[in-house]
Amino acid sequence: MSEVRGKAALAKAAAQIMNRLTTNEKNEALLALADALVEHRQSIIAANAIDIDRGRANGTSESLLDRLKLTPDRIQGIAEGLRQVAELPDPVGETLETFERPNGLRIEKISVPLGVIGMIYEARPNVTVDAAGLCLKTGNAVVLRGGSAALESNRRIVEVLREALAGTALPADALQLVEDPSRASVDEMLKLNGLLDVVIPRGGASLIRNVVDNATVPVIETGAGICHTFVDESAAYDMAADIAFNAKVQRPSVCNSMETLLVHEAFASQHLRTLADRFLAADVELRGCERTRAILPEASLASDGDFATEYNDYIMNIRIVDDLEQALRHIADFGTMHSECIVTENAVNAASFLQRVDAAAVYHNASTRFTDGFEFGYGAEIGISTQKLHARGPMGLPALTSTKFRVHGNGQVRG
Amino acid sequence: MSEVRGKAALAKAAAQIMNRLTTNEKNEALLALADALVEHRQSIIAANAIDIDRGRANGTSESLLDRLKLTPDRIQGIAEGLRQVAELPDPVGETLETFERPNGLRIEKISVPLGVIGMIYEARPNVTVDAAGLCLKTGNAVVLRGGSAALESNRRIVEVLREALAGTALPADALQLVEDPSRASVDEMLKLNGLLDVVIPRGGASLIRNVVDNATVPVIETGAGICHTFVDESAAYDMAADIAFNAKVQRPSVCNSMETLLVHEAFASQHLRTLADRFLAADVELRGCERTRAILPEASLASDGDFATEYNDYIMNIRIVDDLEQALRHIADFGTMHSECIVTENAVNAASFLQRVDAAAVYHNASTRFTDGFEFGYGAEIGISTQKLHARGPMGLPALTSTKFRVHGNGQVRG
């Protein structure tokens, strides 16, 4: 049996125990994991140093190496995250519906764990702990397949966590790490129907594309975000400028940042020059439609390809539109249904935008950067779903549950 | 552009109108569709006759032809189904959560249509109308791809329905029928990410397998059911016999019927001979484990392959088990997580079974045949989900919705 299949089978067996744990047992285990990480931080940092050295030798950029790097402080922070997950309400075992049928059958709909969750992700080793914590809290087993750049770190982290689980009510086998760094191990995970109940990819566009294109296991797609801010005719200048600037510049590398600014022509003729200067002062490269370039000659011409690109960088498209309808059309054509914003003082236009834009999160007069599990008050998130099935937008703990019907009878048969 | 892609694009455009309809507009349209079906029943029956003749010429069995056949009464019944869907509550536009964040952001979670639903199904033309009604009621557009055996019937039905939609607030393009009978049209639908939001297969195991294996669009898997009835030591004989007999014999061809009877050894030694005679009298073929055959010499030996087969027929496996644990093990190994039943007078065993069996519906002292949207009181069902994502078990109207977050701010930016 391959490593992947073998570990998934162990996880599936463990899931049948996970399924029966009390909230207390799960929370105590999370606290034990947090303590173990802190206790073993030196050996984790030593393993991490191997990844860092190999990365540097392979020419990995310093900014990526910084994301990969673990320090005592960062490990404290990661452990604190586990403690916070322990504090969250347990979404498993809730009675979601209960009803009685005329024939006397009493039916309950109960929240249950999903079972075995496959996580496929890239470099940062903190995802290893975060994902483990969220999956175990919700009574799931998890098969982690992290990026090869963090393999030594992940190996040591999972070793520490599994040793710690051995002293709790949770089976150590509920936590599995796939160590095979080849693409083949990912491909195999994607086809493990019957062993994995869901695969969640987290990472760049090509990782997610590969999972969506090749998985036969159900997938929760996360991540890609071509988000827009539409500044309407009636927008207040300062508010519009602050929201647009925040959406683009506060952290351009993430999925809820803005890629394209849509500006009503009346607002543009009055304010676009001033607004653009603020972006230029922050070293944002501007690409614009023809009408934009009439106002901002320094902008290069934005192609349809540009409008369809998630830059995740200090680059922004600008398009001047005639009205709300044209803005809605552009968002329907180029958006990825992630996060979309209108800045307006016109309540009718705001309501229309919120109603008609088909996205996980639609904003009136606030930055798209708020699409985030912590910002929504969910306390933690496993990712941001960009699909419509099962979960949409920031996924808190309930997104890691399913349901089952318990039916209580006294001999009913169907006529 | 291919037929499939062209029709899906029309459906996607229509979905943006469907999204904004009132409950009244949708209900009135459903009533208009019902009236149109009855009014045009003669031309529908004429088209159906072509399918029937072609089927008969191709050697289709009379029982399959009967499922394909439309009569004035059956069309009345199908129209009545649409009227009943009109009566059901509209699950779209509900505020599912609402909360305010410390920074003043007010967040609402709203139920919304899924968007465009692809349905891939087999012969019976009533599915064409049922699926259309459920999808339109929930504000979705739908692309139907029925079986080629019903092509003429489906073509005429959809023509009638689209003509009727033209006189309502709903866009006719929200209802599309793929007429290309080749496998290629199915394969193309499965990859229409960006146009279809979900694909729901309904039909036999090979149809569903093909969809699950090849779709890149999210899928709701339906259908396969290897269901068990476990008769525990303490079961009352009459109740156990009635439930098991109903689960196997009342309608063996459907997914919630029983394939394997698990019997506690103490119950078996006392009652299995009598129970088996009831099945034999109903012409059920029995296959059993070695211990079963010691009591029922006429049973053939059941292989692991038999235990893993959904017969959908008058064939049943019997296995004698030592205890609840062994029954649970068997169900975990061979079940398809559809519907599972324990018959027992022992409350502890009942609770343990309901807790530990991982299935969409778990029964204590009632037949598995109740796993059905109508029997659950949902009024209609688009299918029975056998996956854990999004929906599990009988899927009523809410299973055809997604959610979005509406966020109301007054200039908030992220710090």
Description of the molecule:
Chain A has two domains: 3-220 and 395-408, Aldehyde Dehydrogenase, Chain A, domain 1 (3-Layer(aba) Sandwich), CATH 3.40.605.10; 227-370, Aldehyde Dehydrogenase, Chain A, domain 2. In chain A, a hairpin with a 7-residue loop joins β14 (384-385) and β15. The first copy, chain A, is globular, with a radius of gyration of 24 Å. Chain A is an alpha/beta fold. Chain A contains 15 helices and 16 strands. The first copy, chain A, has helices at 3-18, 23-39, 41-57, 62-68, 72-87, 126-137, 151-165, 183-189, 205-214, 237-249, 265-281, 290-295, 304-307, 324-334, 347-356, and strands at 95-100, 106-113, 116-121, 141-145, 175-177, 198-202, 227-231, 258-264, 285-288, 300-301, 315-321, 339-343, 361-366, 384-385, 393-394, 401-412. In chain A, the strands form four sheets. A seven-stranded parallel sheet of chain A has the order 10-9-11-8-7-12-13, sandwiched between helices. In chain A, strands 5-4-3-6 form a four-stranded parallel sheet, sandwiched between helices. A three-stranded antiparallel sheet of chain A has the order 1-2-16, with no helix packed on it. In chain A, α2 (23-39) packs antiparallel against α5 (72-87), α2 (23-39) packs across α7 (151-165) and α3 (41-57) packs antiparallel against α7 (151-165). The interface between A and B is large, with 67 and 67 residues. Chains A, B: Belongs to the gamma-glutamyl phosphate reductase family.
